[in-house]
C-alpha cells in the first residue's frame, strides 16, 4: 500500500528549551552576582536592580500594548527582566532612581522595541541604555561609592581602571600606582569600587559556567575575549612595564567579565557561527584595550561590544556555511 509522505515546514526537530526557560536560566545565573553586589554595596544595589527590572517590564508592556498594539507577552518571558538586571549591574549603586527609570526606558524603547522587539534588535539593549546614561549623566555614572569594607591603604572610591589612568596621567610610577590598588584576590571576589554587578569575577564566572552547562551560551565568545585581552595586554606589558600593568589586571577589573559572559553572548546581537563568534570576540578584546590604553574613558567594554554588534551582519555573511547544491548559470 502506498503511503503519502507529508513534509511540514521547519523546524523538524525541536529542543526542549523555550524562550522563557532560556531567559529565566540567565536570570538564575545572575543571582550570585546580585548576592555579591548586595554584600558589598548594601540594599541600594538590590533597590536599583528591582527598579530597573520593574520599569523595564512595564515599558515593554506599555509599548507592546499601546504602540505596537499586540498582546504584551514578551514583557513576561524573562527577556525584560534580563535587560533590567544587566542595566542595573552596569551602574554605580549611588545612581538616582529616576535616572535608572529613564535608562530602562531607553534600553527597552530604543534598544529593543524600536527594532521590533525580542529577536530583532541589532544592539544589546542594556548596553544601549548604559551608554545613553553615561553620555547624559557622566558625573553620576562615574561617581563610585566605597563598598562596605576597608580596601588597600590609599584606595579611594574610584575604580581600579580610573585610578590607573589618573596615576599614569600624573606621571606616577607604575609600582606606586599599583600599590594603592586592591589585590588580585580583591578583584576576583569583588572587593573594589565599580558598577553593581561587574565587581566580582568569581560570581560572574559561576553564572557563566552554569549557562554553558545548560547550553544557554557557547563558551567560544567569552573565552576568545579573555584570551585576546590577555595576549594583547601581555604584549604591551613586555613593551613597556612602566606604562602597562599585568594582563590579569585588565582581565579582572572593569566590566570585562560581565560584558564577555552576558552581553557579548546575547543570542540576537552576536554571530551565529562558531567562527563568527571567535572573530567577534577578538574584535571586542582589541577594541576594549585600545580604549583603555589610549581613550579618554578608562573603560571600553560597552563601546567595544556595541561597535562589534554593528559588524555582526557582515560577520554572519562571510562565516555562514555554504549551501548544498550547485548554482547553474543559463547559457
From TrEMBL:
<dbReference type="GO" id="GO:0055085">
    <property type="term" value="P:transmembrane transport"/>
</dbReference>
<keyword id="KW-1133">Transmembrane helix</keyword>
<feature type="transmembrane region" description="Helical">
    <location>
        <begin position="188"/>
        <end position="212"/>
    </location>
</feature>
<feature type="transmembrane region" description="Helical">
    <location>
        <begin position="277"/>
        <end position="295"/>
    </location>
</feature>
<keyword id="KW-0812">Transmembrane</keyword>
<feature type="transmembrane region" description="Helical">
    <location>
        <begin position="219"/>
        <end position="236"/>
    </location>
</feature>
<feature type="modified residue" description="FMN phosphoryl threonine">
    <location>
        <position position="159"/>
    </location>
</feature>
<feature type="transmembrane region" description="Helical">
    <location>
        <begin position="97"/>
        <end position="115"/>
    </location>
</feature>
<keyword id="KW-0472">Membrane</keyword>
<dbReference type="InterPro" id="IPR011303">
    <property type="entry name" value="RnfD_bac"/>
</dbReference>
<protein>
    <recommendedName>
        <fullName>Ion-translocating oxidoreductase complex subunit D</fullName>
        <ecNumber>7.-.-.-</ecNumber>
    </recommendedName>
</protein>
<dbReference type="Pfam" id="PF03116">
    <property type="entry name" value="NQR2_RnfD_RnfE"/>
</dbReference>
<feature type="transmembrane region" description="Helical">
    <location>
        <begin position="248"/>
        <end position="265"/>
    </location>
</feature>
<feature type="transmembrane region" description="Helical">
    <location>
        <begin position="21"/>
        <end position="40"/>
    </location>
</feature>
<dbReference type="InterPro" id="IPR004338">
    <property type="entry name" value="NqrB/RnfD"/>
</dbReference>
<comment type="subunit">
    <text>The complex is composed of six subunits: RnfA, RnfB, RnfC, RnfD, RnfE and RnfG.</text>
</comment>
<keyword id="KW-1003">Cell membrane</keyword>
<keyword id="KW-0597">Phosphoprotein</keyword>
<keyword id="KW-1278">Translocase</keyword>
<comment type="function">
    <text>Part of a membrane-bound complex that couples electron transfer with translocation of ions across the membrane.</text>
</comment>
<keyword id="KW-0285">Flavoprotein</keyword>
<keyword id="KW-0249">Electron transport</keyword>
<comment type="similarity">
    <text>Belongs to the NqrB/RnfD family.</text>
</comment>
<keyword id="KW-0288">FMN</keyword>
<keyword id="KW-0813">Transport</keyword>
<dbReference type="GO" id="GO:0005886">
    <property type="term" value="C:plasma membrane"/>
</dbReference>
<feature type="transmembrane region" description="Helical">
    <location>
        <begin position="122"/>
        <end position="139"/>
    </location>
</feature>
<dbReference type="GO" id="GO:0022900">
    <property type="term" value="P:electron transport chain"/>
</dbReference>
